Structure formats: C-alpha cells, structure tokens
Amino acid sequence: METDTNPRQHPQHRAKTRSRISAACVRCQKRKIRCDGRIPGCSTCQKARVNCVDGGASRDISRSYINDLESRVAWLESVVRGHAPGVSLDGEQNHQHTVNGARTVESPRSLEEAATAITTSRGYSKDDTSLRDVTDQIGLVSVNGADLRYLGPILGTPRGLPSDLRHAQWLSQTYFQSVHLQFPFLHEPTHMETVRKLHDGVDAGPACRFRIFMVLAISATIRSWQAKVLLSAEGYCASAVAHMDSLFGRPSLSGVQCILLLQVYTINNPSSGLSLWTLHYHCLASILELGLQHNVQGSHLPVFEQKMRTRVFWCVYTVDRVLSTLLGRQIGLMDEQCELRVRNTLINMSSAIHLFKLSKFNAEIKCVLYCVGQLYGLYTQPAITDIENWQANVIHRFRQWNTDSYVTGMLYYSWISTHLLFLCVIKMFYCVWVPNGVADEVDFDDLTRALKPASDVLSATG
C-alpha cells in the first residue's frame, strides 16, 4: 500500500511568529510581575533601588554590566591620559590576529610606552632587581634555610612607606587599637619608634621592615572596611614579602612574630591566597624549637625578652585554638606539653587574658571530643568517664569566671542614681545647645557654675 506524500494534500501550516521581549529579571520573576526589560534596569528595580539582574541566558549578570564596563574603560583612559598625555588611545591601533589557530592580542607600542611612563612615575625602573626578587620569592618561606615551601600567591605592586609620618602612625594605631588587643605579640612603643627611624632614613633591618609593612597591610585592610576606600593593603604586603627570604633561615622570636603577622593578614584578607594552615604549622614548629612553651623565668634571658616570649607563646596558643575551631581540625599544641603561665606583666591586657582563658576551655573541650582511645599515659590528663558531670563542671567554671571578671560594690551611690544624674546633665546640654538662639543667650560662666555640683557628684561616684 502506497503512502500518499503529496504536499498539496497535506498543507503545512507555518508557525505563527510573534515578537517576544527579553526575559524578565530575577526580581520580577520571583514576584511574578511584568518586567519592561529596560536597560540598565527595569522600572520596578529602579523604583526599589536594587540591582537589576538578568533572568535569561545570562543569568546572575547585572543588566548594567555593559554600562559599568564602559564607565570603567573611560576612567582607565582618563588615567592613561593623565600619566602619559602623548599616548594615542585610538581604537584603530588595537587589532587582533590569529596565529596557528591560537587567538592572540597584539599590544600597540603606545600602550607599552604608557606602561613604562606609569612605572617610571611610581619610582620603579626596568633595572630594579628588587621587583624580580619579590616575584621569585613570592609565596615562599624558608624554614631551615634549604626547604622552600609554597604558601600561596601574593598579588600587588610593592609600595613604600607613606611619605607622611602621621599617616604611617595613623595606620599603625589602627592595628594596635584592634588586633593588638586580642593578640599582643608586638611591643607597641618599640614598633612606633622603628616607624620613626625608618621615616628618618635609618635602616632597621629586614625583620623590622617586614613587621612594619605587615602592620600597615593589616591596618589598611581594616581601614578599607571601615571607610569603604581602597588603601592598597596588597602593596604593603608585597613590600613585606620582599624581606621574607632573609628572615626564616633559622627559627627566631622575630620570625614567629612575622609569621603571626602573616596569619593575621590572611584572616582579615582571605583573598590573599596564603595557606593559613601551612603558616600556622610553620609557626608551631618554631615555637617548639625555640622552647617558648616552657617557662624560662629567672634564666639568663633579659626580662623584656622573657615577657615577649610569654606573649608570643600565648598568641600562638590562641591562634591554634581559633584555627582548629574555624577549620574543624584537631589542635596542634597540647596543654600537657606546655607550661601555661601568665606573667604579671600581662594583667593590664585584660581582653587578651580573657581570650587566653577561653582558649584553654576550647582546648579541653576539643581534647574530649577528639578522644579516640581509652588507654592514657602518665603524662596525660585522666580520662573523662562521666560526660554529664564534666559538662556541668565546665558550665560552673564558666559562670564562676563571669562572676570573677566584674568588680561590684565600688560605687557609693546606686547605679540608678548615677545614671539619672548623668541623664539630667545630658538633658541640660541638649536644651542649651540644640534649640536655635538659646546658646547665644546663655552665659558660659553661669552654665559652668550651674553644672559644677553635678560634675562633682559624678566625679565622687567614680
């Protein structure tokens, strides 16, 4: 039986085409509302003042992506014109060609000249071997003078010290007002004095330069978060790395401080690419080789060095507990192997002391959690047989610690009376200074005499 395949008997109906607008954005799709598809953002997203993200094939890409790129290119061209006015930025010189099936981009001579001009304006030359040394030593730490271990890439153009001494001191104060309160492994007066010496042109050695540049890098990272501005933390870090190969030939207290600075920088700047875990175990190896876990009080070492050894040990001890918690791993330094001493010179560092105590609790909890055997040597703590009793004991010690941390009963007046008096003084200041014209009519001496009794009472209450 033949099949009739005459197309005239079976006419084909052409599919009716209709124009279709671009896919709705992600926000409109979630809310199931009509999207007008405008660029760089639909009217709904513009009214809500949110970023309009395309919901089509190019999902998760902002519709203002092209506009942002064009603005970025225009800004870069303005930078090139500012540094090298004679550079031609015509698009005719930029062309692409294919060689052996590989796509390559030919850089015009004008752009090479622009790069040379920008590099020269920043104070670097092609013959500067220090930059090549940085690229050769980037990410490497020498533990015993022969073993170079890769720690990760450090991106950034090396940057010198700030030309203004006040700017360098301002950045350094940021470190000592934030990081130093938790990890006091540096000596603030010595550090600030070294900053002044380097600014005056006095050579302080590679270890001091490394510490100063790393402190600036950490401070620049913190200030960038606070002020929402770019302060080139990577540039300071790259300048510090240039001195790294001369620091780790043999373990030293300065070397441990430098590794701790790298760890703090990596914690605050995860995009640096450094291996935090590798850095930490280099630090632990130096701690054990230097014997910082032992108390050397009364030895031939100077008192200042004994203090710094204690502070550095506790900082490494605390970082070990913090990293083991963050990364979900076992602790690297057992309490049974260390003399957990706190010198009297650390009493004024109350925040760090509490963090050290918390690290001891952390270590005890982890030792119980990661316990895998029932047989213990004579040098270890007794096994925990009653978990519930141990948990109750830990909670009791936490509460006792909280009770002992605060001093009560030191005010002659009650807290409520002092607080009410303080609010009354604030209210008087508000009534005088906030309303327009009142401050001009009030005599300053009369106001001072009126507030003197309140000031005396507040001073008497402590």
Q: Secondary structure elements and their pairing?
A:
Blueprint (H helix, E strand, L loop, with lengths): L25 H6 L11 H6 L16 H19 L12 E4 L2 E4 L3 H13 L7 H9 L2 E3 L5 E3 L14 H14 L9 H12 L6 H22 L5 H9 L11 H16 L7 H15 L12 H25 L22 H20 L17 H18 L10 H19 L4 H4 L2 H17 L2
Antiparallel strand pairs: 1-2, 3-4
Helix pairs in contact: 6-7, 6-8, 7-8, 8-9, 8-10, 10-11, 10-12, 11-12, 12-13
GO molecular function: DNA-binding transcription factor activity, RNA polymerase II-specific; sequence-specific DNA binding; zinc ion binding
GO cellular component, one term: nucleus
Subcellular location: Nucleus
Short overview:
By secondary structure, the protein is mainly α.
Poorly predicted residue ranges: 1-5, 92-153
Share in β-strands: under 5%
Average residue-wise pLDDT: 74
Give the N-to-C terminal Cα separation: 112 Å
- Evaluate the radius of gyration: 33 Å
Secondary structure tally, helices: 17
Strand order of the largest sheet: 1-2
One letter per element, helices H and strands E, the order comes to HHHEEHHEEHHHHHHHHHHHH
Total domain count = 3
Major sheet description: 2 strands, antiparallel
The secondary-structure class comes to mainly alpha
Overall outline:
extended
Helicity, in percent? 40-55%
Number of strands: 4
Organism: Aspergillus glaucus CBS 516.65
GO biological process, one term: positive regulation of transcription by RNA polymerase II
GO molecular function: DNA-binding transcription factor activity, RNA polymerase II-specific; sequence-specific DNA binding; zinc ion binding
GO cellular component, one term: nucleus
